[in-house]
Structure formats: structure tokens, C-alpha cells
UniProtKB/TrEMBL annotation, chains A, B:
GO terms for cellular component: cytosol. Signal peptide: none annotated. One of its GO terms (molecular function) is DNA-binding transcription factor activity. It holds the Pfam family Rrf2. It comes from the Bacteria. This is Transcriptional regulator, BadM/Rrf2 family. Gene3D superfamilies: Winged helix-like DNA-binding domain superfamily/Winged helix DNA-binding domain (1.10.10.10).
Length: 133, 133
DNA sequence: TCTATTATAGATATAATAACTCTTTTATAG
DNA sequence: CTATAAAAGAGTTATTATATCTATAATAGA
């Protein structure tokens, strides 16, 4: 019952994009070194973010990654969902009773968490946390 | 990023105690049959609940499990914590900066979820959901 | 005390998932 | 054409979840 390391890497990577320069193309090597993981692994995570539209990539020489226009409104939840997939904290419900309050409680709890994660966007970090990473 | 099956079993077991008879001693076999898992496995989960003080157990003949006095105020969060341990959705933070907003966001999101889970107690299910399980 | 019953503990096996690596392919600037 | 960098795919290892089996401890009742 915790977020994967991949999600961690994704969050930190996105934040790093913000605190450096959202416009500039950035290769995967410097990022990988910062977090001490292999470039190919991080690349795989970044590809997930690309597919979710949370970063832009450019192949070939002088290529790299950068934030897309509109990056300011990307939320924590967006990033988490991009990496973890559509998570539902509560699964394995056999007799699928829609009235069941157990499910309702769990779903509502998850919603509360997601609400919070949705409200926090990269814009919040543009000024406030340049020293974080 | 989801709750374990064990947590599921624990929640359903607790609910089952409520909808049947909170006072009566109940062996592990009937419960295990209901959820189609082995008695020893469920027993292990129940033992965790016992250690957390969420159920009472009695060894020996005519023994079994039952809810303790004050069971009405046991919350979903109590049960989850008893089985999952002290979970923190966000770990693997290396340079432990207490000012870090990333951590703050994640912790606050988790808090929101836990608040909700804390407010839902077994008492809510005493009348409302006798047909759930 | 003896026996049947029931929880507890420990060791172990299996399965599933996460975490990571290596290799190959595709794309592009110069 | 070539150097560079991302994307894709296959495969490996590590970790954790899930579950079972066996043995031990406790207790009520005969
Ligand atoms: S009690 Fe609710 S959550 Fe559990 S199996 Fe039934 S419908 Fe699903
Ligand atoms: S940026 Fe924040 S969450 Fe990430 S390692 Fe640093 S202190 Fe921890």
C-alpha cells in the first residue's frame, strides 16, 4: 500500500524540469545521474509520461525531453496516474453489489486523496520549491 | 498502489462479526469457508487484529473470536493499519528535507484519505448493512 | 487427568509484481 | 552518412504477497 519507486522518480523528474527550465530540452543522462538510476529505466518511465502527454520528447541528435505548453496545470494526480495506471485501492470485490457500503467507503476515501492530489499542480512549484531537488 | 487481499479479508471479517452477533464467539472455520480461503491463513490475519486490540480471542474448546467491548468505535482505518502496518504512501525520500513540498503534498493527500477512513466506524454498519456480506 | 477443540507460531512454498538491465530499432540534426 | 538520443522489446533479478503445512500452546468439559 504505497506508491512505487517509479512514481517517485516521475514526480522528481517533473519537478526537476520545473526548477531548471521548462523550455529547455533535457537529456535523460543527467536526470538518471541525479537520482542514481540507469538511464534506460528512467527512459521507460519518461516514455510513460510522454504517452500521457505530460512531457514532450524529441528523438535524434539534440533531442531530449521537456515540458509541454500548459505544463503549469499538470497535477500530481496526472503524474501518478500516468505511471501507476488507473489504480483502485480497493479491488477483489467478488459479489459486485453496487449498494455495498464497504466499497462506497473505500472509494470515497480514495476520492478524497485524489482531490488533494489534483489540486496540486506544477505551477505551485514554479516559485516555491526551486531548492527541493 | 492498492490494499492487500489480507486487508480485504480483515474488513469483511470485521463486518461479518457486526452483522451476525458482536457478542458471540465465532470460530475461524465458518469465516474461512465464507471467503474461500484456508483457515490458517485467515487465522493469521485475525491474530494481527487481536494484537491490535480489534478482536478478542479465546483458545481451547469453545474458543473463538469476537468483538471487544467498544467495538462500535473501531474505524476502517484501525483495521487497515492493523493489517497493513504503518503505511506511508510516499517513502524512499533520500535527502530528508523537512521543508520539502513534495513530501508535504503527498502526506497531506494521505491524511485526507485517512480522515475519511477514520470517520467510518463499525457502528455505521450495525444497522445499515446487514445484507452486505 | 485426559481428550477434543481451537488459537498461535514457525517454517516453507508458490505466485505475483516491482525493479531493473541489455539489446535492438527508430528518428533526426548536422 | 554519422553521431546522438529516444522507443521498444525481451529478459533477469529481487522483493513482496499469498497461502499452506506442521507443530505448539491453551482451555473447556468429561
Ligand atoms: S461486501 Fe461489498 S465489497 Fe465485499 S464482496 Fe460484497 S459487495 Fe464487494
Ligand atoms: S525533493 Fe523532497 S521528497 Fe524528494 S528526496 Fe528531496 S526532500 Fe525527499
Amino acid at each position: 500500500m504505497k506508491f512505487s519507486k517509479a512514481t517517485n522518480y516521475a514526480l522528481h523528474t517533473m519537478l526537476y524540469f520545473v526548477v531548471t527550465d521548462p523550455k529547455q530540452q533535457l537529456g535523460v543522462q543527467p536526470l538518471a545521474e541525479k537520482m542514481e538510476i540507469s538511464p534506460t529505466y528512467l527512459s521507460k518511465i519518461l516514455t510513460q509520461l510522454v504517452k500521457a502527454g505530460l512531457v514532450e520528447s524529441a528523438s535524434g541528435a539534440k533531442g531530449g525531453y521537456r515540458l509541454p505548453r500548459g505544463w503549469e496545470s499538470i497535477s500530481f494526480l496526472d503524474i501518478i496516474h500516468a505511471v501507476e495506471g488507473p489504480v483502485s485501492l480497493f479491488d477483489g470485490c467478488l459479489n459486485d453489489n453496487p449498494e455495498c457500503m464497504v466499497k462506497q467507503v473505500m472509494v470515497s476515501a480514495e476520492d478524497k486523496m485524489e482531490e488533494e492530489l489534483k489540486q496540486r499542480t506544477l505551477a505551485d512549484f514554479a516559485e516555491s520549491a526551486p531548492a527541493a531537488l
